[in-house]
Amino acid sequence: MVKAVIFDLDGVIVSTDRLHYEAWKKMADKEHIPFNEQINHRLRGVSRMASLDIILEHAQKTYTKEEKQALATYKNNVYVSLLKQLNEKAILPHVLEVINTLKQKGIQIAIGSSSKNTPTILKQIGLDQTFDAVADGNDITHSKPHPEVFLKAAEKLDIDPLSCLVIEDAISGIQAAKAAGMKAFGVGDAKHAELIDYAADDLRDILHVIDQ
Ligand code: B16
Ligand code: MG
User: Fold this and answer.
1) Ligand with minimal distance to 187 CA
2) Which one is catalytic: 8, 136, 169, 189?
3) What distance in angstroms lies between residue 60's CA and the mean position of ligand 2's atoms?
């Protein structure tokens, strides 16, 4: 029986994809590194430093650890200033309805995100007091597909991972959920993940899974 639902943030609750893209693009242009939507797609659910490594695959020179740190900080500063334009209108379709129904059913809800900017994003969209637990990039040393962030969310909720269901939009997130021993519900890209338990276009379909 599902006792808790753990939501991925970016791509499930809100779409910050475009803002990540703009910020990475600014950094890449400054460094004369080719960067496009296709490369950006590979960064979904991937941590900041691992994302940078993917972008640097296309660089002409090798960067030192310190230079890489500086590039990641540059990108993050741009990204954080772009986050100021987010508000509750950025919440993806059906999210609020699903959250309210889960709460009515007594199901615990949590966030499991790779993003270190999770607290800022939740505040911007007005959901910083909504979840029973938040596990994010600040709590973990291994990013998805490692299960750490979802195990951390289950630990904070004090619920057995086997009773948790994860909603994810990235294949790395589905792999992380399955490695944590959880059920995985995929939307968007993640619908095509190999290990998926449930796939849907409409987030409200999660309510049928809960009632099973
Ligand atoms: P930050 P999620 C992920 O969020 C994003 O999908 C990914 O593109 C980003 O690189 C990562 O967070 C780290 O974000 O730079 O803000 O720490 O999908 O796990 O909610
Ligand atoms: Mg995501």
Assistant:
1) 2
2) 8
3) 29
From first to last of its 212 residues, what are the pLDDT tens digits of the chain? 999 999 999 999 999 989 999 999 999 999 999 999 999 988 988 899 999 999 999 999 999 999 999 999 999 999 999 999 999 999 999 999 999 999 999 999 999 999 999 999 999 999 999 999 999 999 999 989 999 999 999 999 999 999 999 999 999 999 999 999 999 999 988 999 999 999 999 999 999 998 87
Known active-site residue 8:
yes
Place of tokens 């269901």: 165
**How far does residue 45's CA lie from ligand 1's centre (Å)?**
5
Neighbour tally for 105: CB within 10 Å: 12
Q: Of all atoms in ligand 1, which is nearest to the CA of residue 8?
A: 20
Tokens of 37: 């939507």
Residue recorded with tokens 């509750």: 88
SS3 183: strand
Copy the structure tokens of residue 122: 């939740």
CATH numbers and ranges of domains, the chain: 4-15+88-210 (3.40.50.1000), 17-83 (1.10.150.240)
Q: Specify the pTM.
A: 0.94
Active site residue 160: no
CB 111 within 8 A of CB 5: no
